[in-house]
Write a structure and sequence with these properties.
The protein has 140 residues and is mainly alpha-helical. 41% of the residues lie in helices and 10% in strands. It contains five helices and four strands. Strand 1 and strand 2 form a beta hairpin. The radius of gyration is 15 Å and the shape is globular.
Length: 140
């Protein structure tokens, strides 16, 4: 198991009208229900964070029944059965790097919307070009 100690960043998207996934500081206590996702490999942490916060995953998740009333409902069962594309190392590296750029920008109170659009573009392009194979989230 990979320790989360030392990860102090939170990926918070101000002005976004929907839930986001984040890295938690060990000193923070969540308010409300929390689902914990732990990748098997530490190097997958930023990739997974970037992918889960992308527009493609949001649309995919909603199409699989993730909406309850007017809200998105993140449940263990739906997340566990979600498929994560197994992208090429190049695409995965780009997603990871952009996620790190977004985190850095947020820590410095910078506008990261350009990075978010670029991240969505890379993911959508790879999906459209079928440069992936599916993998369940609990196998990552």
């Amino acid at each position: 198991m990979v320790s989360m100690a030392g990860f102090e960043e939170l990926w918070l998207f101000k002005g976004k009208p929907y839930n986001r996934f984040s890295l938690g500081d060990e000193n923070l206590l969540p308010a409300g229900d929390v689902l914990f996702i732990q990748p098997y490999n530490e190097e997958d942490l930023y990739f997974l964070l970037g992918y889960l916060n992308g527009e493609f995953f949001r649309m995919y998740y909603l199409s699989r029944g993730g909406k309850r009333g007017g809200r998105v409902s993140f449940t263990q069962k739906l997340l566990e059965n979600s498929e994560i594309p197994l992208f090429s190392p190049d695409v995965k590296g780009k997603i990871t790097q952009l996620t790190i750029e977004i985190l850095s920008g947020l820590r410095e109170n910078k506008n990261v919307s350009g990075f978010e659009r670029e991240l969505d573009g890379i993911i959508n392009s790879a999906i459209m070009e079928e440069r992936f194979s599916p993998l369940r989230i609990h196998n990552l």
